[in-house]
Each structure stands twice: as C-alpha cells, then as structure tokens.
Design brief:
heterodimer, A: about 110 residues, mainly beta, four-stranded antiparallel beta sheet, B: about 110 residues, seven-stranded mixed beta sheet, 11 strands, about 50% strand
C-alpha cells in the first residue's frame, strides 16, 4: 500500500506556481521521497527525489519539512503542458516504487 | 537514444487466452520493472528483473510471469486471461544502482 496521502485534485492558473502537497507521516529514516507525473496516455515521468534536503532541478523544486513527515512539489511557472497526475512516493533504495492514486493537477489559461 | 519501447501498443484477447508483452529498456539500463495500471488507478507493481532473475514481486498471481534476456529486454506473460486483466501494462527500466525509472508508453490490453 502507498505510504503517502495526496489531495485528489488541484487547479492552477497558467504562469502561477503550482504547490502540490504530500503527507508521509510514517516515513523511515532511510526512505526517499520521489515525485513522478503521468500525462494522459503516457507512462509516468520522473520529476525529482530527495532524502531530507530541499532539491531543485530544471523541472521542479522539492521542499521536505524538517521532520520529514510531509513535502511539497513546486512547479514555479505552471503551463498547460503540466496538466497531469502527480504521484508522491516514499521508497527505500533498492525496493520497488509503489504508486498511490496521485493528485490530478489541472492548469488552465 | 531511444527510450523504453514496448510492443504491441494495443492488444485484444479473449478470456482464457495467453498473452506476451515485450519491452526494450533504455540504452545502458540493466533492470526492468513491470506495472499494471487499471483505468483511474495508479500503476501497480508486478515484478522486477535484474540479471535475468526476478528480483522483486508484487501481489500478483502466478498467472503473471516474466523473463529477462541477456540483452536486458524483457517479456511479461499472462496466462488464463480474465476480464479484470484489462489494463495498461507499463514497462520501466533503470540502472540497478540508480532509483530513477524511465517508463515506456505501455501496452493497452483489452480482454473480452
């Protein structure tokens, strides 16, 4: 079973920042937080992952709280192409990724 | 550089039949994972192959089996198909030491 809780859906205006929350209150010290997204009719796409420090790449930023019980994925300037299902996954290195139902993000103009 | 390729893209089968789905991993990847995604659900982990051995397995019956070849490509076999096996089957590849998965676009299986 998925170890994370995410809102079912969120809306965001194009050009604004999209902040997607994820709760993972039972996370263990050796478990990472991963984010993937799935655009309609495609396979999931890796976005970012982190252990306890905040991370940033060309796609997004990941903010992990100090107690590691929750995190936020930030898309700084959402576009229509960011409309997708976003999955937050907690995973121990070397084990299979277990997906939940994710958050459906709708970006509108 | 081709990413993860899966074949066929669509498939229609009848209950009780057997099906084989194929996956070629991204160049340089040695690990292949298979997922089943029902409509409106997140992907469900079936199993993972590394060095031609099943390394991990999810909660799927023995009707689901797989194989990995020396060139790292993989097959997923499903026997005695049920209506409930209708789903999108996704293949993902990775390097064993790196957790980042690259997914193919999937095979849409319909069981009638």
């Amino acid at each position: 079973d998925a170890k994370t809780t995410q809102p079912t859906s969120m809306d965001c205006a194009e050009g604004r920042a999209a902040n997607l929350p994820c709760n993972h209150s039972t996370i263990s010290g050796n478990e990472y937080v991963y984010w993937y997204r799935q655009i309609h009719s495609q396979g999931p796409q890796y976005i970012i992952h982190g252990l306890k420090n905040n991370e940033t790449n060309e796609m997004a930023s990941l903010i992990i709280t100090e107690d590691r019980k929750s995190s936020t994925l930030i898309l700084p300037h959402a576009t229509l192409r960011d409309t997708a299902v976003y999955y937050c996954i907690v995973n121990q290195a070397g084990t299979a990724l277990i997906f939940g139902k994710g958050t459906t993000l709708s970006v509108s103009s | 550089d081709a990413g993860v390729t899966q074949s066929p893209t669509h498939l229609i089968k009848t209950r009780g039949q057997q099906v084989t789905l194929r996956c070629s991993p991204k160049s340089g990847h040695d690990t292949v994972s298979w997922y089943q995604q029902a409509l409106g659900q997140g992907p469900q982990f079936i199993f993972q192959y590394y060095e031609e051995e099943e390394r991990q397995r999810g909660n799927f019956p023995d009707r689901f089996s797989g194989h990995q070849f020396p060139n790292y490509s993989s097959e997923l076999n499903v026997n005695a198909l049920l209506l409930g096996d209708s789903a999108l089957y996704l293949c993902a590849s990775s390097q064993v030491s790196v957790e980042k998965l690259f997914f193919g676009s999937g095979t849409q299986l319909s069981v009638l």
